[in-house]
Amino acid sequence: xxxxxxxxxxxxxxxxxxxxxxxxxxxxxxxxxxxxxxxxxxxxxxxxxxxxxxxxxxxxxxxxxxxxxxxxxxxxxxxxxxxxxxxxxxxxxxxxxxxxxxxxxxxxxxxxxxxxxxxxxxxxxxxxxxxxxxxxxxxxxxxxxxxxxxxxxxxxxxxxxxxxxxxxxxxxxxxxxxxxxxxxxxxxxxxxxxxxxxxxxxxxxxxxxxxxxxxxxxxxxxxxxx
Length: 226
Description:
The protein is of the alpha+beta class. It has helices at residues 30-40, 121-144, 157-167, 172-179, 184-221; strands spanning 5-13, 22-27, 45-50, 66-77, 83-99, 106-111.
């Protein structure tokens, strides 16, 4: 069944927006000031797409075709005309075509919800991915020397999948790959693979830190000044 087709302003950025994610933005280009004002006069939404690296032979910005609708939740207008806005990620979408009827791009899009959310495989994947996610956050906190309080992962499968996508410290291209996965079982399976890979890397980093700390402490213990 074909999803609903809509028209929405498009904003290519150097980040990936997931459903449920908050995204503050500083709007300074005139065309995007116009875009935000147009959104405020309508449904307060625009589409965020990950911009592709610029091609040396082209001055046009290109972007990946799967993005997330951003809802404007708060606006602060500055004296210089710039805007500071707060947004929240809503639904995923796919771009069908791009219109250039405005100073900014407008996309003909179709909504792109996760499929197979009731699949029998989801429950076991939630348990596996959730456990990996909790361990991942604890390792990140240890390596960075910060505090991340987490007791358990969300039990709702879709919420967990998107939260993992938000939290993973990986490249934007890899995040875009996660955002573009069609089904919930496939998304959780791919995230579990990434979490396992990152757990191995973080464990090695923590061991190196402990080794280096022990070496420095040992060296300091034998240092004497005359």
